Amino acid sequence: MRRHNLNYVIVGLFVSAMLAAAIVAISLLTGQTGATDRYFVVLANVADLKFGTQVRYEGYPIGQVERIEPFPEGGSMRFRIELAVREGWRIPADSVARIGSSSFLAAKTIDIQSGTRDEVIAVGGEVPGAPPTDVFAVVAKVASEFSDLGRSHLTPLLEQTQAAVARAGELLDQDVAELLDSLNVIADSMEVRVPRLAESVEEDVGALLDNLNRVTGSLQEVMSDENVAAVGRTVENVEATSAGFAAMSADLRGTARKVDDLIGRIDEIVADNRGNVDKSIRDLQYTLRSIAQNIDSINQNLEGTTRNMKEFSRLIRQNPGLLLGGTSREPEPLPAAESEAALPR
Hints:
Layout: H1 2-30, E1 36-43, E2 54-57, E3 60-73, E4 76-86, E5 96-100, E6 109-113, E7 126-127, H2 135-222, H3 225-272, H4 274-318, H5 336-342
Parallel strand pairs: 1-7, 2-6
Antiparallel strand pairs: 1-4, 2-3, 3-4, 5-6
């Protein structure tokens, strides 16, 4: 009896130990061996995810999936996944979580790709989600795109190609004979005209070569040593003339500066003596106005003075002794014209 009880006790202890070992192994496999923090990920597809799915950070297990909740968004369903992550684990704010697997036959996991920012996601926050990188999913997507491409583009293209080939065959059947006849006619015509054309081309080429020879001879005469030397001297003279013009331009610029200075000084003089100039102009106007008013009397006095000087000159010519204090002799009678001119007016 005691032996049976002992066996039961041993079996119970063994079962309990195995259960404890299983619990420890499961905890180690899931990465959840102590206190955890809660984070969330929103994905559009949760294929093969369930409670206990492992959460890895750059390949290192840090927790597991606790719960998956679907919710509608924009006419489609999305899934909010609750993650239990090892307490105190820092997840940068620009990290990305996606569904993946380490190999073709490995179980699905949630892989968190680490970011580079110093800020971290607060506990209870949301880790940005991204589409899965499953090879089978990518292959299926590519196959679907190829299928759509074949239905929407390749099939119509093949149909259009077949129709074009059929139309081309019909056109060839109808027009090939006529085309061959036309080619034969053209060949016969070319057979007759080509020799004539060759002879004409030969003559033209000969004439062209003669003209080229004459032009070459003329160029050789033009490009003789004497002409080349003359051109060189002309270039030197042009360069010397250009240098002279440059020097002249410099002198002209200096002269222009001096003229500008002179004009500036004249402006200053005019500005400084504007009052005197105005006064002189007014005096000149008064003088000219006085002369204009008395010009008749001045002309009359000048005319009388001129007659007196003429009479004085005549008397001196007749009797030079008058200059030495002599007496005048009797004046000779003047001609009638001179007597009339001597009369006062």
